């Protein structure tokens, strides 16, 4: 159940009341989340970021996993497209996909993004980008998933000088866009991605389509990369892992990287889990400069082919240590489309394990979306994203460009540890 400590509630100078709530679990551990209310009952629910310590998996795991999985098998067939499959709240943990995408950028123990721009030469900058790309992976939780964002949903958070803004620019199919900028370091991130899930009988594979761009503006360099896929295995051994190939390229420096995530076998019976292997090479000659090897939940090393020197380019302890839960810094500035507002009632219901209320809340949101869709169709109106210009082609898929040069500071911030 969710415990409310009324004595700890405080009213600040803006008339906002903040409560600390926690989830009591059998282990005696507590999952804290921040609920911010104002006089007009605007509610913002923020939960701590996913980490490697395992606490999140304990707190978020819904009961009766085997029964829930059995119910899924009755409703889907091998080869089924799960893009628009609606999970009941029992299968959700209290975050939207937009929040999960954002956390990969703004929730990090060490500032690996700034290092990409600060490196003196193109090779060091490229290897820093490779390390940063590995740091954007987060441990998935078997048996539960984040919410599918509603059309027009946004997520806006700042960490120091890095301002991050996400928007759900399409619902059918689901497409998310991200724009992040750091004016001090002259860094810009632009993502546009679509998740497509397929059921294969003993597993579900979610392909993350679309490209991610990292621009080091002061260096005149653009790095393009993709994301690994998410592989969920039900049989013979349940588990979840990132898998597939990632390519990172920088035309300006003439360097590329090929990384392979996860086990080699499709069912994950052979090979090392959470592994990453690959190489960094010259685009023109295909000459390998470095070999990359390790595990994204531990360390990743880079071996210089010429000298044989081995160095650690990624350490998960640095990435996942001291992660702080975002807090509301300016409640009046929080948009009604903010993920932490849109899903606040559902998130609180899930945290308190009030599944009837969770079901009602989720159904109400879905019905509201259907109502808005019917209204647009009756008027012949087309949805236009607020923060991105969107293009689509059957060959190239979805692409987007931000409408603003710089992302403004957000009303929700990540405290610096």
UniProtKB/TrEMBL annotation:
Belongs to the OSBP family. It comes from the Eukaryota. PANTHER family: OXYSTEROL-BINDING PROTEIN, OXYSTEROL-BINDING PROTEIN-RELATED. Keywords: Lipid transport, Lipid-binding, Transport. Gene3D superfamilies: 2.40.160.120, 3.30.70.3490. This is Oxysterol-binding protein-related protein 4C. It comes from Theobroma cacao (Cacao). One of its GO terms (molecular function) is lipid binding. GO terms for biological process: lipid transport. May be involved in the transport of sterols. InterPro entries: OSBP_sf, Oxysterol-bd, Oxysterol-bd_CS.
């Amino acid at each position: 159940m969710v415990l409310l400590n009324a004595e700890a509630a405080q009213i600040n100078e803006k008339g906002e009341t903040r409560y600390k709530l926690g989830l009591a679990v059998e282990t005696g551990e507590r999952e804290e989340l921040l609920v911010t209310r104002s006089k007009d009952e605007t509610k913002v629910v923020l939960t701590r970021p996913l980490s490697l310590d395992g606490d999140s998996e304990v707190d978020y795991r819904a009961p009766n996993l085997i029964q829930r999985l059995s119910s899924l098998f009755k409703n889907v067939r091998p080869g089924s497209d799960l893009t628009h499959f609606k999970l009941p709240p029992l299968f959700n943990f209290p975050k939207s996909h937009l929040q999960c995408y954002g956390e990969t950028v703004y929730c990090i123990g060490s500032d690996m993004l700034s290092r990409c721009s600060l490196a003196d030469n193109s090779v060091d900058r490229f290897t820093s980008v490779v390390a940063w790309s590995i740091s954007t992976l987060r441990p998935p939780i078997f048996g539960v998933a984040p919410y599918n964002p509603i059309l027009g949903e946004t997520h806006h958070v700042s960490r120091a000088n890095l301002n991050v803004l996400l928007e759900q620019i399409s619902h059918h199919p689901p497409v998310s866009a991200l724009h992040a900028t750091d004016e001090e370091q002259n860094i810009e991130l632009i993502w546009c991605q679509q998740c497509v899930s397929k059921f294969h009988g003993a597993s579900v594979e979610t392909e993350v389509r679309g490209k991610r761009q990292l621009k080091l503006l002061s260096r005149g360099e653009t790095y393009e990369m993709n994301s690994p896929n998410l592989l969920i295995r039900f049989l013979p051994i349940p588990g979840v892992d990132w898998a597939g190939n990632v390519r990172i390229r920088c035309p300006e420096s003439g360097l590329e990287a090929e990384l392979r995530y996860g086990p080699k076998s499709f069912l994950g019976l052979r090979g090392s889990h959470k592994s990453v292997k690959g190489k960094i090479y010259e685009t023109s000659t295909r000459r390998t400069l470095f070999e990359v090897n390790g595990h994204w939940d531990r360390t990743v090393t880079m071996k210089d082919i010429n000298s044989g020197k081995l160095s650690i380019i990624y350490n998960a302890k640095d990435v996942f240590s001291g992660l702080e839960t975002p807090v509301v810094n300016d409640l009046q500035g929080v948009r009604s489309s903010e993920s932490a507002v849109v899903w606040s009632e559902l998130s609180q219901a899930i945290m308190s394990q009030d599944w009837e209320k969770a079901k009602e809340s989720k159904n109400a949101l879905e019905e509201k979306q259907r109502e808005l869709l019917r209204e647009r169709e009756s008027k012949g109106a087309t949805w236009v994203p607020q923060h991105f210009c969107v293009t689509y082609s059957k060959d190239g898929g979805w692409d987007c460009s931000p409408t603003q040069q710089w992302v403004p500071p957000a009303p929700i911030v990540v405290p610096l540890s």
